[in-house]
Amino acid sequence: MALITKSIKGTQDVLPSESHKVRFVEQTALEIAGNCGFREIRIPVFEHTELFQRGVGDTTDVVQKEMYTFLDKGERSITLRPEGTAGVVRSYLENGLYNEAMPQKLCYLVSCYRYEKPQAGRLREFHQFGLECLGTASPAADAEVISIANDIFSFLGVSGLQLEINSIGCPECRKEYHKALHDYFESRKEELCHTCLERLERNPMRILDCKSPVCSEIAKGAPKVTDFLCDDCRAHFEAVQGYLKAMEIEFTVNPSIVRGLDYYTRTVFEFVSTGIGAQGTVCGGGRYDGLVEEIGGAHTPALGFAIGIERLMLLMEKQGLPFPEREKCALYIVTMGEKASLEAAKIASALRKEGVEVQFDVVGRSVKAQMKYANKLGAQFTVVLGDSELESGVVRLKNMESGEETEVALSDFENAFLRASLSESLKGLEELGVDADIDIDELMNKNLF
Q1: Cβ atoms 204, 107 nearer than 8 A
Q2: How many Cα atoms sit within 13 Å of 115 on the Cβ side?
């Protein structure tokens, strides 16, 4: 039978064999951000198109070329989010979070959508962990945000990432920079692509972000934004560097970084790897002091970053970094007959309420096939339950790794299993060199299993 359809180009499935790895990375990011006071926010997958046109910038590649935009049944222009920041800022304003204690520290896990040529590390549906810190202009906040990304990578064991930082100034000092850029690119305008010719008059900084090889080569000789910073922006950038040094975070100043979105001001940064091909930016972010005002709020200094989950996973796999093993089935109950199946359902229900993964036959397999299935699941323990066991009230609990079997009364099966499982876990700790001299009965009595 032929498939009706395949997955859409630029999307991918995450199978059960891999999903626990993704969850580990995401949970790590949430916990590290949480240690700095960031709390999770969830936003819609689509917004009014105007939000991204005004927030992200209508001269960016994202808005001009990459957004998934459509008219809904009410003839409203709707766009699948290409990034998370604009939606978070919209939620911050709409829900009055500016009335709460500042700064507002928000983090999120989102799927994003951009119509680009699919390649390693670049999908049309991709996922990001991001955070936003709204309500502070302090350079200490810039360093704290950067440190969170750095801590995530360090905890996961990622190596070979280079932190590159820059300052692209404020609207005032950028006026002179834009003029210098315009004059430079004007002298080479006949070589620029059609898109960059349009940008030349509206926003020449966007030419620096063009993916055309010709425009990229021309941009290498363009004036550097750091030569045009006003005194305040220069002092802010120097202070950010001072905080990073105090936190012992290595970095390189790269005057070529401008980031691909129009809302950035002052500090911008990227964590870059050479180990995953052309799409080497694993994390990017910076300050966006004018975005809240642009969307309709009061002037609010803010900053944030986003980490590409797929790119991070790709890098971790290339470096051979370990992931926690997928949790295995703790107990598989092999059943013979309907009465045994009912008893198995009862036992499974009780143990599942204790947080234990328990499975029993729901297909109608033979005993031999059930044991084979338990092995495929990697079940830690098995127990065979049939008419004779129900009659005697005694079953044999088998440790599948050691082969050891223990007789257990059905009337005390749940407690006996929890004790056996806990004992096995403590043995595992001892093998890792952890002192596990713990009284199991005491733990059981205190419900600390």
Answers
A1: no
A2: 9
Q: Which two tokens stand for residue 297?
A: 């709020």
Give phi and psi for 399, each to the nearest 5: -80, 115
pLDDT in tens, 103-158: 999 999 999 999 988 877 789 999 999 999 999 999 999 999 999 999 999 999 99
Distances, alpha carbon 237 to alpha carbons 229, 254, 300, 353, 376, in Å: 9, 12, 19, 54, 56
Backbone dihedral angles phi then psi of residue 230, each to the nearest 5 degrees: -75, 170
Write out the E strands in 248-387.
Answer: 252-253, 265-272, 281-287, 302-308, 331-335, 358-360, 381-385
Provide the terminal-to-terminal Cα distance of the chain, rounded to the nearest Å.
48
Cβ of 253: how many Cβ atoms within 10 Å? 12
Phi-psi region of 37 (alpha: psi -120 to 50; beta: other; left: phi over 0): left
Question: In terms of DSSP bridges, do strands 69-71 and 77-80 run parallel, antiparallel, or are they unpaired?
Answer: antiparallel
Q: Among 67-71, 145-149, 183-187, where is mean pLDDT lowest?
A: 183-187
Strand 69-71: give its sheet, edge to edge.
46-48, 77-80, 69-71
Cβ(182)–Cβ(203) under 8 Å? no
Of the two residues 154 and 220, the one the predictor is more confident about is 154
Across the beta sheet with 381-385, the strand order is 358-360, 331-335, 381-385, 394-399, 405-409
- 156 and 28 in contact (C-beta within 8 Å)? yes
* Burial profile 340-355: b = 16 or more Cβ within 10 angstroms, e = fewer: bbebbeebbeebeeee
Distance CA 125, CA 39 (A): 24
Collapsing DSSP to helix, strand or coil, 301 comes out as coil
Residue type, 99: N
Is residue 164 a contact partner of residue 252, using CB atoms and an 8 Å limit?
yes
Contacts of 131 (CB under 8 A, 6+ apart): 33, 38, 105, 106, 107, 108, 145, 148, 304, 305
Query: In a 10 Å sphere around its CB, with 0-12 CB exposed, 13-18 middle and 19+ buried, how is residue 190 labelled?
Result: exposed
Q: What is the pLDDT of residues 11-21, one digit of tens each?
A: 999 999 999 99
Q: Report how far Cα 291 is from the mean position of its chain's Cα atoms.
A: 23
